[in-house]
Amino acid sequence: MPPPVSDLPLVASGKVREMYDLGDRLLMVASDRISTYDVVHPNTIPDKGGVLTALSVFWFGRTRDIVANHYLSATEGVPEDVRGRAVVVRKLEMLPVECVVRGYITGSGWKDYQATGSVSGIELPPGLQESERLPTPIFTPSTKAEVGHDEAIDFDRAAELVGSRELMDDVRARSLALYQFAADHAAARGVILADTKFEFGLDGDGALTVGDEVLTPDSSRFWPADGYEPGRPQPSFDKQYVRDWAASTGWDKKPPAPEVPDDVVEGTRARYVEAYERIAGEPFQEWLDRTAP
Ligand code: Q0Z
């Protein structure tokens, strides 16, 4: 019998996921917890962790020819109680930068552009509107902040932190190629991939390898293509029900976050499952059937 996850050494945890030590490998577990405005709600969205894990595994399988990744298994080595929302991965030596690719100008990129006309040292054309598509996708690295928000850095600073300009050139090229592949795939299914964040590492042979989760709603902005209109923020594919409901309650966005009512939980769950089914092109149940004990 595999050990329950509570017996494994916890090596890292974020707001909505945990990473455990399996000796020579790692177990990454996505919970069903959800945050809005950076605050975690007290109740969960059933299947959210499963959808994020399934999406990440889908993309890992589709992008292996662009760059190697850390994914090993969603079954062998995964304890029964977290099957469907956890993966076994290779241990990497992680690079100390977040690798952000933006195809659209939004979020912190929009803030920086409004203030300076640039993002991560890349000068953008004047007169862009919020959420507008960029002339070409841009690589905008940021620091990995232990607490608080990541800070945009230019390419030279990222190369300095990583210790090699040649390696950073490769990281940028692979990041842009991953984004382009995923954005094209999503566009064909009515989804805009506005931006995304990758985390890279080096494997035991020193080979550049993508780690963490990839191309999920927690590491990316997915917008429904239907109704896309620059000049305003776009609704998030997955979290918009929760955000709209939270705003309607008058919550000030400071902890503690309010409990999400059942109908909003159900609507949000349906959006996560729809995101998986649109992008992966298979019923979410098929993922569960492949991975559940
Ligand atoms: C990922 C993170 C998470 C909290 C470290 N393959 C790898 N090798 C070494 N380290 C990592 C990985 Cl993915 C690694 N994170 C981010 C993930 C919970 C933080 F599930 N930190």
Structure in words:
- The chain has 293 residues and is an alpha+beta fold.
- It is built from 7 helices and 17 strands.
- Strands 6, 9, 10, 13, 14, 15, 16 and 17 form an 8-stranded mixed beta sheet that branches. Strands 1-2-3-8-7 form a 5-stranded antiparallel beta sheet.
- The protein is globular and about 55 Å long.
- The termini are close together.
- Bound molecules: ligand Q0Z.
- Residues 12-14, 17-19, 26, 28, 70, 89-92, 94, 201, 211-212 line the site of ligand Q0Z.
Topology:
Elements: E1 10-13, E2 17-21, E3 25-30, E4 33-36, E5 39-44, H1 48-62, E6 68-69, E7 71-73, E8 86-90, E9 93-94, E10 97-104, H2 107-116, E11 118-119, E12 122-123, E13 133-139, E14 142-143, H3 155-162, H4 165-187, E15 191-202, E16 208-211, E17 220-224, H5 240-249, H6 262-280, H7 284-291
Helix pairs in contact: 1-6, 3-4, 5-6
The structure holds ligand Q0Z.
Class per helix and strand makeup:
alpha+beta
Secondary structure tally: strands: 17
- Ends distance: 12 Å
Order of helices and strands: EEEEEHEEEEEHEEEEHHEEEHHH
Give the averaged pLDDT, no decimals: 95
- Low-confidence sequence ranges: none
Shape: globular
Radius of gyration: 19 Å
Residues in helix, %: 25-40%
Bound molecules: ligand Q0Z
Total helical segments: 7
Strand percentage lies at 25-35%
Main β sheet profile: 8 strands, mixed
Question: What characteristics describe this protein?
Answer:
32% helix, 293 residues, eight-stranded mixed β-sheet, binds ligand Q0Z, five-stranded antiparallel β-sheet, alpha+beta, globular
